[in-house]
Amino acid sequence: MRLSDSEYHRLTVLKNLRAAEPVSRTELAQLSGLTGGAITPIVRDLAARGLVLEEKVPSPNRGRPRVNLRLNPAGAYVAAATLPSTGDFLVEILDLTGRAIFSQTRPLTDTRSLAVLAAQFATVLAEVIAASPLDIHAIAQVGIGLPAMVDNRTGVVEYMATFSGGRYDFAATLQALLGIPVRIDNNMNLLARAEHWFGASPPVDDFTLILIELGLGGARYQNGQLVVGSHGIEAELGHTKIVPEDGRQCHCGGFGCLQTYSSLSALVTQYCDLTGQAVPGHMGMRSLLPDVIALTKAGHNSLQDIFHRCGKYLGIAIANHINMQDPERIIVLSSEPELVDLISDDFFDALHHNTLEPLRNLARVTFRHLDEQNYSRGAAAMVLEQLYQSRTTIASADA
Amino acid sequence: MRLSDSEYHRLTVLKNLRAAEPVSRTELAQLSGLTGGAITPIVRDLAARGLVLEEKVPSPNRGRPRVNLRLNPAGAYVAAATLPSTGDFLVEILDLTGRAIFSQTRPLTDTRSLAVLAAQFATVLAEVIAASPLDIHAIAQVGIGLPAMVDNRTGVVEYMATFSGGRYDFAATLQALLGIPVRIDNNMNLLARAEHWFGASPPVDDFTLILIELGLGGARYQNGQLVVGSHGIEAELGHTKIVPEDGRQCHCGGFGCLQTYSSLSALVTQYCDLTGQAVPGHMGMRSLLPDVIALTKAGHNSLQDIFHRCGKYLGIAIANHINMQDPERIIVLSSEPELVDLISDDFFDALHHNTLEPLRNLARVTFRHLDEQNYSRGAAAMVLEQLYQSRTTIASADA
DNA sequence: CAAAATAAATTTAGGTACTAAAATTATAGA
DNA sequence: TCTATAATTTTAGTACCTAAATTTATTTTG
To answer: Scanning every residue of chain A, which has its alpha carbon at the shortest distance from the alpha carbon of B166?
Structure first.
């Protein structure tokens, strides 16, 4: 949905405030392209709502001293519940600055259906909030992240691997159970939101995020906004077909998905194929991975080929993405630094050779370590973005 | 660049006016989501500038009769110069409704450099405008379309096959030579603009356009706006890599480009490879194509395999696009109806099998015959969009 | 044929949200 | 204490919207 000018300005002010903190009103005006006269009422409103703190600083020279503005960490709290790669629930309570003030994990016990999953989310959220120092009424909203296809506008889960009951109205169900507003999005989108809201300063407005985990995911920001498809569904990079003939079979039912070559599960699965081992489940894959990496480093030829191909195909896929969408930056996240070492030569080689000449070297591609906290931060950002946009009527001061 | 609310509203009103023509102010208010009171001054301004005509209609029932509004064809004229698939210049003068009132082709004689090309554009434009019934001062702007990588915001040509001198400031050069404002864009973007502005009613706001010609191109509209990359460059679908290993070599220097399998030149080239013929140039390809199609229809097995693969790979590529971007509609254009017959079974089969289940059948994919006039229409739309947005101060009426 | 009914379009009153410029405020230094 | 100065706020003016009232142009009705 298109933001109105004033919503857009408010959001810009807040993003700049967060990024340049501590910042004076005058600086904020320059950063956001508005005049000082426009900043005053926006900051007044935010301060009145407790989202922004003012801090007097001794002036270094003459003239009226600047008033430093900061996000008020205690301005609002968000409960974030996600299912990161560990496979367990991570429930965190975060403040306005994206810092976790309370954090607990809970086991995910039942993976039958989305309805059961929603019930478990409700239970663990209620438990963790009760265990936290905060009262449930101090929580402004709940943000949920799922490794699933989600319509983030409606809160409907379209599809989630191994869970039956697609097209399930997850957000509404949870909201009814908890009695707090609930927002939900796909895990990759959460990481992208975290990057945009709590990452670099000034905020990066055009980037693509790619994550190499057991699966392979992607998300994209353009013009300072998360890109969502016409049905609210995010980029399914992992199930992009990279091999058109005789490709490896994917759990999605298709063949030749990028995910079957350039993901952690792909590497372990192919190793098992080599050795004739049975392919383990998610947990088994994770425990096998160090061995696979060690063997590769030790010079195992067939394994090295598998890693070469992993890097190469990822490079081709990202080159394709650059050729199609011309992003400004690409950030490839991984929790396995050793994997990055093993694939980066092949990756950058393929990236270079498959990007069209005029676009070559335009998009900056960097590897970065995944911070698992960013799932929660993204959930916080999702909720805060809504909080920021909503405009309360300014209580008329007794002028 | 982000449009302001009022620019956005004006544009919306005009798109709806064009699409629903003839339309009353009251209808326009409903279509564009504004109130009647907002429509009045917008239409007043457009009428004052001669872009809109009012037409009294006898009222069918009681009440004040509606005033029908139409685009005034004579409100502004645009000179469009493009290089469609024929390889020659097509220079047309179009009215506000996208109708060509004058049309001539001129040979493209010199393909050395972009500088020479720009000079030729200037020459043919000046000649054709002189030959037309219109004075050059009646032309509001010139719109240029090129089969090239273009930054449509700056008018710089980044790269154009067979023409040397990339990063050439085409629009500025031409503007200096002609003395009229010049806008320039990539051919695929022009087709997409034509589709959005002069196509279906109500205007389609989310679609991807794909063209099967000698090359293979793509362009995308999202949220009612042409999607451009961070460097103003459009989707290079043709050079997406579809085969990662031992792919066919492409003139771009890469291997495995979709264009080397699913384009007219790919079909002819592969036929020549089969028969040991030398691969002809652009014109030769076109003349050979009917034979290739006829032989395939007659049951030539190896050729049929080539066509099967053409359809299949295109299906995979578009499925990948759907999985990544979730477009609402996809329109595949071709000037060869027989080609469509030959590939559509394989295409739809591959499309279906490679689209993720929740997205399957969500995006409507249709084949359509390419109307070569749409290059010019797109050039007109590009210019008109600018014209529409610009706001002249309303001459204060003697109230 | 005048009056009533009706639908389209415009005007009016009110509000929001900006800008540019003036005024105010809070400090340091003379 | 007075002056200079920089940050911020206020003021006056403008653009552009909405909702509601009004005007306009027509047909239908009595």
So the answer is: A358
How far is the C-alpha of B53 from the C-alpha of B76, rounded, in Å? 12
Question: Closest nucleotide to residue B8 (Cα to C1')?
Answer: D16
CA distance B222 to chain A (A): 8
* Sign for the pseudo-dihedral over CA of B379, B384, B389, B393: positive
DSSP β-ladder status, A182-186 and A100-106: unpaired
Q: Do B388 and B52 touch, CB atoms closer than 8 A? A: no
| Rounded Cα distance, A136 and A140, in Å | 9
Give A296's strand partners: none
Say if residues A121 and A144 touch (Cβ distance below 8 Å).
yes
Considering only CB atoms, A356 lies closest to which of B236, B354, B358, namely B236
Assess whether the region A75-194+376-387 and the region A202-370 belong to the same CATH fold. yes
Chain segment B196-225, per-residue pLDDT in tens: 999 888 889 999 999 999 999 999 999 999
In Å, what is the separation between the CA of B270 and the C1' of C7?
66
Q: Where are the beta strands (DSSP E) in chain B?
A: 52-56, 67-71, 77-82, 89-94, 100-106, 139-146, 149-151, 156-159, 168-169, 182-186, 207-212, 216-222, 225-226, 329-334, 364-369
Q: Are A83 and A62 in contact (CB under 8 A)?
A: no
* Cβ contact A240–B356 (<8 Å): no
CA atoms of B182 and A264, how far apart (whole Å): 51
Handedness of CA B257, B258, B264, B269 (dihedral sign): positive
The beta strand positions in A114-164, using DSSP E, are 139-146, 149-151, 156-159
Q: How far apart are CA B80 and CA B125, in angstroms?
A: 8
User: What is the domain partition of chain B in residue ranges?
Assistant: 5-71, 75-194+376-387, 201-371
Q: For chain B, first and last CA: distance in Å?
A: 37
**Token code pair at residue B268:** 């002819």
Interatomic CA distance for residues B204 and A24, integer angstroms: 44
Q: Is A17 exposed, middle or buried (0-12, 13-18, 19+ CB in 10 A)?
A: buried
Tell me the CA–C1' distance in angstroms for A209 and D6. 42
Q: How far apart are CA B269 and CA A239, in angstroms?
A: 31
- Which sign does the torsion angle of CA A356, A360, A363, A369 carry? positive
| CATH number for the domain whose boundaries are B75-194+376-387 | 3.30.420.40
B80-138 confidence digits (pLDDT tens): 999 987 789 999 999 989 999 999 999 999 888 999 999 999 999 999 999 999 988 88
* Phi, psi for residue B232 in degrees, rounded to 5: 75, 15
Residue B135, judged by CB atoms within 10 A of its CB (0-12, 13-18, 19+), counts as: exposed
Closest to B161 measured CA to CA, from B265, B272, B80, B277 = B265
Phi and psi torsions of A336, nearest 5°:
-120, 90
Render pLDDT for A283-342 as a digit per residue (tens, 0 to 9). 889 999 999 999 999 989 999 999 999 999 999 999 999 999 999 999 999 999 999 999
Pick B201-371's CATH classification: 3.20.20.100, 3.30.420.40, 3.40.50.2000, 3.40.30.120.
3.30.420.40
